[in-house]
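User: ok so my PI wants both of these folded by tonight, can you help

Assistant: No problem, let's get them done. Here's the first:
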Amino acid sequence: MPNIRVRKETGLLYFDFQYLKVRCREQSLLEDSKPNRKKMQKVLDEILGKIKSHTFSYRDYFPSSKQLLAIELLENGSPPEPMPVGIDPYFKTQPAPISALPAQVQANGPLFSDFANQWYSEMEVGWKRSHRTTTRGVLDSSLIPQFGPRPVNEIKKGDILAFRSSLAKLPGIKNKESLSASRINHIMTPLRMILTEAADRYEFAPAFINIKPLRVGKTDVQPFTIQEVQDILRTVRADFRNYYIVRFFTGTRTGEIDGLKWQYVDFERRTISIKETIVNDYEETPKTGESERDIQMSQMVFDALLAQHKVTGQGVYVFATSAGTPISHRNISKRVWYPLLRLLGLKKRVPYQTRHTYATLMLASGEAPEWIARQMGHTTTEMLFRVYSRFIPNLTRQDGSAFERLMAAQMQDQPHPIINPDVVNEVSNHSGINPNSIGVNRLPKTQSRATKEIEQATQLPEPQPINQPKLPLSAPVNLPNQPPKTRLNPSTDAALIANPWLEIAKHSGLSMPPKADPTLPSDHPAGDLL
């Protein structure tokens, strides 16, 4: 994009334009001022007009340029003419930036500093002011000092990894030992874009290949409990109570609530439209396309905004200073928010935690995740479950209760075996089984129909011993006219389930359960009886 720029090292203006697909930057002797910019802009407009009409001659304007030879080769392929003696007093020439030469003329490729500035000038038109400021700061403070004098095609993967490693050793903000992974990734992103674009334009192998971003930990979410929210709203200064009610119960970002205008508050529809935001004291569009949304007012928010309208309703902004300008969140945090947390004995947290609090309270109350995502300006519900769902158990205290209710409803009609505790104790004395491990006295309160029938079944008389010749131990015991281990009828089955000793007695010849004997016979090891 043609422009008049200033070189920071000298404070002098220079031309920056493109001719024959070559970026041309020619230095002047003029200092940066409005009259000098106007004078140079007039010359630049003349140059652009001649380029458009195909009558421009590079020699006529920049006869002493170091890149004149390359430009004239591109213009007509003829050898250069002798240099004229006279030079325009307003301009001087200097060695042309390497990036201004075409790839077929300059073997080394463009310098990183030159191409980075060119890339920035081409991309900034599509960026917000805040992003332009951030990216320009990364270029000037980190990337250009590191890679500026090197040709872009000589920067290799090892250089990039070494640079990233050096960033990890720099001290971070707020007394942190090193830069965070998120901050390092933000510095590396413009570097990746610049080197990828340079490789595409100048046709060399890109160096930024298979270099993944550093892993960033989960978002530091520290929401307030509903009791803490109530304490804050009861204690906060009266002139800021409406402000924090809206923050806590709409989930708006700091810039969104600070830049909220009355024209976007609809009391009839009970909605707040997020159309603008305040970033670094400038009005901007919302963060993303999804951030431009309508938020439904709860009754508490509706009442708070009605009360606020009596105070600032004649102005532009909902929450404004006495002069009618937007409030400064830094000033409010320093004078109101952090002193309030100290007064209440709460952990120090940034005001943005009000947005996290809104999300957790909405999820805990059972609101549909899709609706919550739309209210907060999220594209999908993925972020809700990834960031906030881990806080829901601490708010509901009902983890797994839905499953418990389902199983209780489905299992209450299933039959359960009825076990006599006395019998189980008797068995345990001979088998070594702990009666507490087999569910004694742990049956559901509600018994099924089948279970009640078993309980009410007629008790059969205990079987009497049958007089018959003793057989060897190895011979099977067969009752007359009855196969072994054959039950008589369903009633007998019910009785056997109700009293397991009947099953034992039928096959062993015992007429009643044995008495408890703390000393086990040596010829009857534990477990033989069962």
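One down. Here's the second:
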Amino acid sequence: MDVFFAALDVLARWDVMLALVVGSIGGVAIGAIPGVGPAVAIAILLPATFSMDPIVGLTMLLGIYGSSMYGGAIPAILINTPGTAVNALTTYDGFPMTLRGEGRRALSLAYSASFFGGIFSVLCLILLSPVLAKVAPMFGSREIFLAALLGIILVVTAHKGQMLIAAALSGFGILLSTVGLEPVKYTRRFTFEQTWLASGVDLIVVVLGLFALSQAFLLLTMDDEKIRMPRSRGSLFQGFRELMRHPRVAGISASFGVLMGMIPGVGEFTAQFMSYTSARKLSKSPEAFGHGSSEGLIASETANNAVPAAAMIPLLALGIPGEALTAMMLSVFYVHNVVPGPGLFLYQMDFVVALYLALLILNVLVVAFLLVSTGALVKLTQIPNRFLGMCILLLSFVGVYSIRNSAVDCAIAAVFGLFGYVLKRLNLPIVPIVLGMVLGNIMEVKLRAAMNRVNTPWDFIDRPIAFVLFAVIVLIVISTIWKTWRDWRPVDRRSLARKSSARFAKRISGRKSRHFDDRLKIQRRKRTYDHLGS
């Protein structure tokens, strides 16, 4: 209880509450604008949070992170355009409901499901705190290195169909983390005798370039669309009653969100896919999914909003981010010399509990705000793309220059902005670069610290947690190689020819039957006309 009251004292400050309110409302507005997203907003705000207290800056970023998905459901449901990338699955059932004139019902259901998912994940996080406080000190340098390596591997394997390019981009991010002075003996690496590279490539500059500037370039090259809002009926308060009719779907989807959020490199997309698939299998009317099913909408919105709180578990307990947004938050910790990991639970537990309570209050604030301001937020979806692009471009360069008052940083950010623009146009992932930079630095520091106590290879995994992490890494690598080999192994050409010939014969027979049916109909018509004429 003493920790709880100490956390309340931390959270009760006026600047902390103001940051939480601004972040929550701002996150909803940003999520409601297609083409912006929380990553762009957090990247722009990062330089500003460096001058704040850690709890103030983190509550603002948490507000944006946790509330943007609420706002992203508005354009996904009303105009079939997801406000954030993770709201893409919401369009499957949200927009068909809008076409039936049930837009308000769909919005209310999305808000209710998001609220349930957010509260469920925060409560799970609070219940897991005693376990985390006991387990986190068991992680030494070897365990954290293996956990970071596992995160890199999961990031690569999560991009199915793009694993090779994801691995290459992760390696590029690790390479960027090694530029400059190395952290032990302070020797220069990959600087090529250039003084401006001695301090390394700043993570925030790369983040602003890859996420904010690339999105600005993308918006500036897009045409402005005229959006017409369909009429909708229903009440924004009916969603809570309807959610109670599907407790199984909501509970399973929230559980998937918590589990997937705890695993680095997985995130909202996998949680949504698994929850949506399971909801369709367990539904009494699976044919309605994709055509305006309330269960499908509940599954997608509950799962993606259960992830943010769960994603804080590896960040706070081990200092390992699971995605780009938590990697950005990690930089706020480092700037203020607050090191997330086992020491945070031992010496600053009130700080951790304050973050949990902030997430809890965040969901209440967002739902209360949405119930009274949805009409005004709908108008944000009609802001022209090019105007948004210019605003993001201006704010990004101001943020980059304010970090170190360096024009070189602006040039580096512009280069990464163009690189990110190319990746987005080619539909290639950007997140592996950022996670490679963050996790690469962690892996190097922890590996060099662990090697002082390692004499043989077995010494590296002679502890239980280290051995379990190593076993998981080996299993994931072997299973990935096996699946890849199975998909690419040579196909039996004879069986393939038999299957193709059978399909061709079936197609021909179908055409023949349709042809004979048409001829029979024509003959019957002729006989009827001849009979009438006679």
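Residues 518-534 have pLDDT under 50 and may be disordered. The radius of gyration is 27 Å. Good luck tonight!
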